[in-house]
Design a protein that fits this description.
alpha+beta; two-stranded antiparallel sheet; flat; two-stranded antiparallel ribbon
Length: 125
């Protein structure tokens, strides 16, 4: 459940610009400042979900449509990435349920968890 792991990371780490991103140059021998689209922490976690989802399809563990059939808000900030699928939504729901349980039973204050879900809705508790 890559979506469950990414959801937990999104809950604990605030979204924002990815600090000082680099890109390979000279055939991968050096790194230079990245100059493409703005990268965000949660956006990169969503890309991780998409990549693992498509890899498991390519590995023959699922039908390709399991990883590419998605709703209109798939990927939230990158529509069409294919992360709004049944297994990923289930993993996200399980992580949210676990985080709520931990928050209600933990002795120390954990503050508020807030992030955008796979389908684009704001989750806050």
């Amino acid at each position: 459940f890559v979506a469950a792991s990414a959801t937990i990371a999104k809950a604990y780490f605030a979204d924002g610009p990815f600090p000082n991103p680099k890109a390979p140059v000279d055939g991968g021998q050096k790194l230079a400042d990245y100059r493409g689209e703005k990268l965000t922490i949660h956006g990169e976690l969503n890309k991780l979900i998409a990549n693992v989802t498509l890899f498991r399809d390519g590995a023959g563990m699922h039908w390709r449509t399991d990883g590419t059939t998605s709703g209109p808000n798939a990927g939230c900030d990158r529509p069409g990435t294919g992360i709004e699928t049944g297994g990923n939504l289930l993993g996200e729901r399980l992580a949210i349920s676990m985080l709520r349980d931990i928050r209600s039973t933990y002795r120390e204050s954990l503050g508020t968890f807030e992030f955008r879900s796979i389908n684009g809705n704001t989750v806050r508790f």
